[in-house]
């Protein structure tokens, strides 16, 4: 999530910061499992879900590879990874759930004059459908998806492009992200201020510490106030 915080225009960029990704993914996996229960019933639901999430590695392994591996470990007659992948791409969005108060926060930021953008890696139709499902579109000034842009995080060029879409300079932006490399390192190299939205994992010891750490999205409000007064 990206935004600027100067006196005249404020702004705050990464879809996964707003969506409850793990919960959304688990909801979809369970629905897909039940849809194919007549073929998958030999595999316990929890084992299928947990292995999917383990192979997914937080979304940084492509889903075709996840499905291929699942079907190698549990050969299921009549199921092809291509069909499961197509279902994921076309049917994931209705299972998306947002972090608590995410829309309220974005509405508040927009009402205070803050420009907001989302930068996300992935396929354009898939990611934009998820953003729409989460009800974020009315509160976002720009959405940059790697497929559509032809470049992906952590390339600083994508972050520069996001700032330009908001009509502000990179140094006027605050980027909020949860991935140490794709989000924090990429935005930092683009010259932005960066807040790491802390997840369960600890910060990697081999990377410079983030400037700011948020325990949740609501921590963004006092941080923006602090930056605005500097």
Automatic annotation (TrEMBL):
The keyword Magnesium applies. InterPro entries: HAD-like_hydrolase, HAD-like_sf, HAD-SF_hydro_IA, HAD_sf. It comes from the Bacteria. SUPFAM superfamilies: HAD-like. GO terms for biological process: small molecule metabolic process. GO terms for molecular function: metal ion binding; phosphatase activity. Keywords: Hydrolase, Magnesium, Metal-binding. Its cofactor is Mg(2+). This is Putative hydrolase of the HAD superfamily.
